[in-house]
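User: I'm writing a tutorial on reading structure tokens. Could you give me a worked example: one chain, its sequence, then its tokens, then a sentence or two explaining what the tokens reveal?
Assistant: Sure. Here is the example chain.
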Amino acid sequence: MKGRSLVSIDDFSAEDIWQVWSLADELKRRQKMGEPHPILEGKQLAMIFQKPSLRTQVSFETGMSQLGGHALYLGPDHIQLGKRESVPDVARVLGHMVDGIMARVFAHSDIEQLAKYAGVPVINGLSDEEHPCQSLTDLFTISEKLRRVEGANLTYIGDGNNVAAALLLNAAKVGMNITIISPEGFEVKPHYIQKARADAALTGSRLRFSSDVDDVAGSDVIYTDTWASMGQESEAEMRGRIFSSYQVNERLLERAGGKALVMHCLPAHRGQEITDEVMDGPSSIVFDQAENRLHVQKALMALLI
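And here are its predicted structure tokens:
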């Protein structure tokens, strides 16, 4: 995998995904045991941020440090990607100075251009289209908790956004069953469904799409995300009305059978898409999920850089 980029989950095969998870498991064990693992000693990672983040910045910066390398933060005002300089020029400059680039951007095309012109591995830390690092972490966390992913039943409730798209692609590649429940008009984009169906035909993954929030029976895991993502603040009130019945609460968990684990990629708007009782309750693995961003990102950097 050395030298490759992660622009989309579609860039990885099932074998690649399992390689990431295997190394993440090993690096997590070594970190817990206090065993040094300077796999990337002397390496440099440039981190481009058009959007703020807690988990993405801390996981990549801390992870690079634990791997023996160094991460350089480039915020929205540092380079003004695509404004002060073109994306290809930024990519070429950074590619001559660093060993890898992580970018958290608005336009997915910016990630694609960085990967095209940088000449070093580029990792999509989030774009408006996809969040591959999050989905790799989420399914890794499910594999830890359930001891399996193949045949497990994941139900995502909410906006068919970048997180939902990446979860769909990832689940189909590794044989996990996934149901995506969204209001009409807020479904995952058709081209992601088409890609996922092609992989599901090979792995046996069952893909289901619904607008009925009560369609959760048999779920092993219930997953939700904010109703209005960054850049959609002007739509927040409208979305709040449309999504009001799509809340993950105790009644929904009972409808699912009472045994489903609960996930959220964070930040959460408590009292909207998820209640405090569920977020802080015994079914929640939200903060284990957040921690695993560190271990999975370390594995990605180690394998690609």
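What the tokens reveal: The chain has a mean pLDDT of 96. The chain has twelve helices and nine strands.
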